[in-house]
Design a protein that fits this description.
With 471 residues, the protein is of the alpha/beta class. It has a domain of 202 residues: 3-Layer(aba) Sandwich (Rossmann fold), CATH 3.40.50.620. The protein has 18 helices and 14 strands. Strand 4, helix 8 and strand 5 form a beta-alpha-beta unit. Helix 13 packs antiparallel against helix 14. The chain binds arginine. Arginine binds next to helix 7, strand 6 and strand 7.
Length: 471
Amino acid sequence: MSNMTNAVNAAEAVNVINATKVTNAANVTNAANVSNIHKAACESKPKVVLAYSGGLDTSVAVKWLQEHYGFDVIACCIDLGETKDHKLLEERAARAGAAKTIIIDAKAEFAHEYILPALKANALYEGKYPLSTSLGRPLIAKKLVEIAKQEGAAAIAHGCTGKGNDQVRLEVGISSLAPELAIIGVIRDWGMSREEEIQYAEAHGIPIPVKKDNPFSIDANIWGRACEGGVLEDAGVEPPEAAFSLTKAPAESPDEPEYVDIEFIQGCPVQLNGQAMDLVALIETLNEIGGRHGVGRIDHIESRLVGIKSREIYENPAAVILINAHKELEHFTLPRDVTEFKAIIDQRFTQMIYDGLWFSPLTAALQAFIQQTQHHVTGKIRVKLYKGSQTVVGRWSDYSLYQRGLATYSMENTFDHNAAVGFIKLWGLPSQVYAAAHKHPVDRSWRDHTWPNHLQQNSGEDVLLNLPKSS
Ligand code: ARG
């Protein structure tokens, strides 16, 4: 790969441009890709697989890829549960000039191969975000690669912006699976403003999707919905109701709580309220129930992989309920050292997903550890949903490590109180030895700085006065 990269120097790139009317070759993600595009473009009709959403960007991209590179465009939509009209999508792609449209329902694969491992890892990025978008990208990459191979395409194109994580996830995913494929990030490459895009669409007869007065940028699948942009860019503004779609406002939700029982076998949720369900149906049902009670709203200042902080509003009713329930069952059935150490592995696994490294060896190794811990994570968890909150209120398991006889303060107690005396002696021994060896057992000179120096102790007045005025 690196030899290839070196071989493609600027002069060759210029030749490619001349030979194939590629006017923007320098912007193609990987310089080595240029020769692939060249090769493909010399054939009668080179093909590109475009990750197609039906929106303005990817509709314009269909035409642009044709005009710019002379590609036959295969518009491809991977359905992970964002409710979309497949017929309409096909029509739109065709009107934009797609040679072919492929729509794949990948919900089951998404649930089993991507969501489930994340659930077993209790995956919440920065302790908050259930990775709904992040988890979808490696699967989309995988499907795009499969289609590119099946169709003999030379390149894959996508409409991610140059500021987000998704371009990284898609491109790292694609190049992990098929390094020979060229990748084109159309939005990054074409340098058109929104207005220019609309002009381009009008000039080429591309239907402009009706804007339902929605100023937000949205991404959704069965694991949740992400909403950003517009007024949400002001970190101090409370999200308006218009930013939400899966969940009711907690204040508007039912005045009676609702209970859900979730049955897990080896870390996998298999029943809801006593009814066996396939994973997709279980997640969808739980999204409905949780959403009705205003559960799963998340307001996240997020540290993006590309270095910026962004503000995202998430709705993940099923995800937060399932993760909370699963974590509870782990605490019920796993020893303390396992849950403690697993939290470190979980955190790293979560970061690998967020960072677009799904197909890397470390991700697989971490997943192996997590899977090993799930053998006895079997049992039932009862969750109470009420006005935006979801609380575990009951748990049952044949593998429970909670023994009432040991825990009880009643007559049925089986815990040996006398054993505690010797235990405390040995547990406290290092502290005793330390205290005997030093005059001041532990240095605490940092205590002088536990309160802002310029303030009187216990008065926050100065700090308040110095705060920037909020608008
Ligand atoms: N920030 C999230 C992530 O990187 C979600 C991005 C989803 N895109 C959107 N248009 N809201 O995974």
